[in-house]
């Protein structure tokens, strides 16, 4: 077998960490083997590990570590443990009564929704959320944000998460957990799109399949299942920040929903467009322009009458 | 912040160490050749040892301590499996042919050959390669966890890439 242009192991290794010099890279990219290596790198990053139930395993560890510890605890300490335990139970019951009689339970849960406007919210841990139109975010103010940071999202939002405790976003399509980073989630109509703009994000679907995204990478969950072969080109920030909604291989039905959300109109269609895929963008400040940007490339005619947009065919 | 704690004995600190490193430690054991259930047992064992020695471990050292414990436990353990990783990908992407100056084959065939070639790597190369490709770790992180130099990580990555390429090309 002919081996062209011997490349040194270390030098080749530096390719995947982005540490080749521009000259080294140029020469590597022009070699015959480059395309093979590029495919190896691409497909190997789509491999995954078996699902991991961290809560279950942590519970086991909690049980077993107490057992491991037990022999060294003196009798006297046992009594203390007993007293402490009673105390905790009492507090637990006490607070239940409070919830029943006094403060309404939902007081603890803060819900912020947008209709036709966008909003910026600062969470207790100083992380920021930009909420796009027609979206809702919910979180529990009574939980200790030092321990656990969890928010629930319906719709689309951009997250700028401060470093610290693990931060997760729950949606009906799956959970995103984060390791201090910036990312965008769009969850509409059973499809969730996640794009990572800084740091690392872990995406887990409803079947516990997961993938880690780094800067510039995106993933999509369709009906609860992860699709990692979806690779849009990302700008420096989500396009809705600058007054556009952009799509990459998105179901046309979801584009219609976004049009309805952005303009507060009703898109009337007499057939299902979910199998037609749209890649492109529409502007937010002018419905006529926006409609052209969606319908012209798809070769679909339409008419705007009052608050309705009628899709003809 | 976890870094400001003097040791890992406080429950919230211990739990945070688990949330941060539990899964990647499990993955590392799988890459090295452990079966998934066995890997979880070793993770559990390592965290219990960490707990027993919690007063001696500062949080910034917990990670390398755990990796040392886990790899020792696995060394002494018995069966090493042939690790075949699966693709996370599912769904609708259309299948294409892969064409390089070196070969042309269907995407499915390429993926299968890659899986097999990774399974045949020696564990020291496979773990480094998959920690980077799946867990998306930087070389410096991998070096810290395995107690080797960044240069050694580069070398193993390069070796792994070369072997994968030649295995995929061969017998075409």
Task: Please provide a brief summary of the model.
The complex is a heterodimer of chains A (313) and B (172). With 313 residues, chain A is an alpha+beta fold.
Q: What does this protein structure show overall?
A:
The complex is a heterodimer of chains A (313) and B (172). Chain A is of the alpha+beta class and 313 residues long. Chain A has four domains: 9-44, no CATH class; 54-103; 107-227, Sandwich (Jelly Rolls); 243-311, Phage tail protein beta-alpha-beta fold (3-Layer(bab) Sandwich). In chain A, 30% of the residues lie in helices and 33% in strands. Chain A has seven helices and 19 strands. Chain A has helices spanning 9-16, 22-29, 34-44, 54-69, 75-101, 252-263, 287-298; strands spanning 47-48, 109-113, 119-122, 128-131, 136-140, 149-160, 167-171, 174-178, 182-188, 191-198, 200-205, 210-214, 218-222, 225-227, 244-251, 266-268, 277-283, 302-305, 308-311. In chain A, strand 7 (167-171) and strand 8 form a beta hairpin. Chain A is globular, with a radius of gyration of 26 Å. Residues 70-106 of chain A have low confidence and may be disordered. Chain B has 172 residues and is mostly helical. Chain B starts with 10 loop residues before the first helix and ends with a helix. In chain B, a hairpin with a 4-residue loop joins strand 2 (97-99) and strand 3 (104-106). Chain B has a two-stranded antiparallel ribbon. Chain B contains seven helices and three strands; from the N terminus they run H-H-H-E-E-E-H-H-H-H. Chain B has helices at 11-32, 36-52, 59-76, 107-120, 123-133, 139-146, 150-169, and strands at residues 86-87, 97-99, 104-106. In chain B, helix 1 (11-32) runs antiparallel to helix 2. Helices cover 64% and strands 5% of the residues of chain B. Chain B has two domains: 2-76, Rna Polymerase Sigma Factor, Chain: A; 97-169, Winged helix-like DNA-binding domain superfamily/Winged helix DNA-binding domain (Arc Repressor Mutant, subunit A, Orthogonal Bundle). Strand 1 of chain A pairs antiparallel with strand 1 of chain B.
């Amino acid at each position: 077998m002919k081996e062209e242009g011997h490349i040194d192991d270390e030098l080749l290794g530096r390719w995947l960490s982005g540490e080749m010099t521009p000259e080294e890279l140029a020469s590597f990219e022009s070699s015959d083997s480059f395309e093979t290596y590029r495919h190896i790198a691409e497909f190997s990053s789509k491999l995954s590990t078996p699902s991991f139930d961290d809560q279950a395993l942590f519970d086991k560890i909690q049980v077993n570590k107490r057992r491991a510890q037990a022999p060294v605890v003196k009798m006297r300490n046992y009594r203390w443990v007993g007293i402490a335990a009673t105390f905790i139970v009492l507090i637990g019951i006490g607070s239940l009564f409070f919830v029943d009689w006094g403060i309404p339970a939902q007081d603890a849960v803060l819900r912020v929704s947008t209709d036709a406007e966008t909003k910026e919210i600062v969470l207790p841990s100083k992380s920021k959320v930009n909420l796009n139109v027609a979206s809702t975010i919910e979180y529990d103010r009574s939980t200790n944000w030092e321990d656990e940071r969890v928010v629930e999202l319906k719709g689309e939002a951009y997250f700028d998460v401060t470093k610290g405790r693990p931060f997760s976003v729950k949606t009906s399509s799956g959970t995103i957990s984060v390791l201090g980073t910036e990312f965008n989630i769009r969850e509409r109509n059973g499809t969730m799109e996640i794009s990572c703009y800084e740091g690392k994000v872990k995406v887990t679907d409803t079947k516990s399949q997961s993938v880690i995204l780094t800067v510039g990478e995106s993933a999509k969950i369709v009906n609860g299942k992860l699709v990692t072969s979806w690779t849009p080109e990302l700008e420096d920030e989500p396009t809705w920040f600058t007054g556009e909604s952009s799509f990459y291989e998105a179901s046309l039905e979801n584009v219609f929903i976004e049009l309805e959300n952005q303009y507060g109109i009703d898109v009337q269609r007499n057939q299902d467009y979910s199998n037609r895929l749209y890649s492109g963008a529409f502007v937010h400040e002018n419905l006529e322009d926006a409609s052209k940007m969606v319908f012209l490339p798809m070769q679909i005619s339409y008419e705007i009458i009052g608050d309705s947009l009628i899709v003809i065919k | 912040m976890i870094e400001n704690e003097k040791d890992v004995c406080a429950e919230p600190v211990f739990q945070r160490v688990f949330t941060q490193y539990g899964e990647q430690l499990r993955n590392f054991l799988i890459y090295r050749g452990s079966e998934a259930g066995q890997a979880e047992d070793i993770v559990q064992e390592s965290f219990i040892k960490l707990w027993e020695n919690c007063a001696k471990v500062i949080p910034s050292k917990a990670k390398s301590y755990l990796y040392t414990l886990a790899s020792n436990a696995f060394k002494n353990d018995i069966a090493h499996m042939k690790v075949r990783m699966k693709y996370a990908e599912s769904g609708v992407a259309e299948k294409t042919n892969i064409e390089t100056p070196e070969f042309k084959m269907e995407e499915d065939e390429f993926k299968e050959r890659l899986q097999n070639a990774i399974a045949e790597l020696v564990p020291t190369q496979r773990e480094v390669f998959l920690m980077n490709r799946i867990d998306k770790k930087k070389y410096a992180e991998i070096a810290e966890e395995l107690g080797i130099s960044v240069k050694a990580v580069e070398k193993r990555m390069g070796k792994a890439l070369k072997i994968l390429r030649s295995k995929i090309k061969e017998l075409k």
